[in-house]
Design goal:
- By secondary structure, this protein is an alpha/beta fold.
- It folds into 2 domains: about 1-35, no CATH class; about 35-135, Rossmann fold.
- Helix content is about 30%, strand content about 25%.
- The protein has 3 helices and 6 strands.
- It has helices at about 10-20, 60-75, 90-105, and strands at about 1-5, 30-35, 50-55, 80-85, 105-110, 125-135.
- Helix 2 (about 60-75) links the parallel strand 3 and strand 4.
- The radius of gyration is 15 Å and the shape is globular.
- The two termini are about 25 Å apart.
Length: about 140
């Protein structure tokens, strides 16, 4: 696959280290780019086939920019795989609830059952969702 890994400007160096440390596993291409949620995504077009999200649901202030970015990045055939750890302390349950309410305005989601996840890495508090734009 041709992959673009993204994070904030201040984490680009770490992304490059990770790419370098794992280049022996890559059979396609990998590049690192800055992506700040809520900002222009023109340079990431056309829409990718897949978007992989890991642990992106944590700050209430980031929910709307994250959802805007997902709407702007996805096409009708884009599959978003979202993995997150369910946290039960503080405001985390409220933030998760709000995220999924807002997400379902424009997207359909399907929870991937635990028994369909990798046996070695699955955990009851780690959730994986398949997300698609509503048609």
């Amino acid at each position: 696959a041709n992959v673009t890994v993204t994070d904030l400007e201040e984490l680009q160096e770490l992304l490059m280290v990770n790419i370098e440390n794992n280049k022996h596993l890559v059979t396609g291409s990998v590049r690192a780019k800055v992506l700040k949620w809520g900002e222009d995504v023109t340079e990431f077009q056309p829409p990718p086939d897949y978007i992989l999200m890991a642990d992106c649901i944590y700050y209430e202030e980031s929910l709307e920019p994250l959802l805007k970015t997902l709407k702007d990045l996805t096409g009708p055939d884009t599959c978003v795989l979202c993995c997150y750890e369910q946290r039960t302390m503080g405001k985390n349950p409220e933030i998760e609830k709000k995220y999924f309410e807002l997400l379902q305005v424009d997207f359909e989601l399907e929870r991937i059952p635990l028994d369909q996840q990798d046996e070695e890495y699955r955990s009851a508090d780690i959730h994986v969702l398949s997300i698609h734009r509503k048609r």
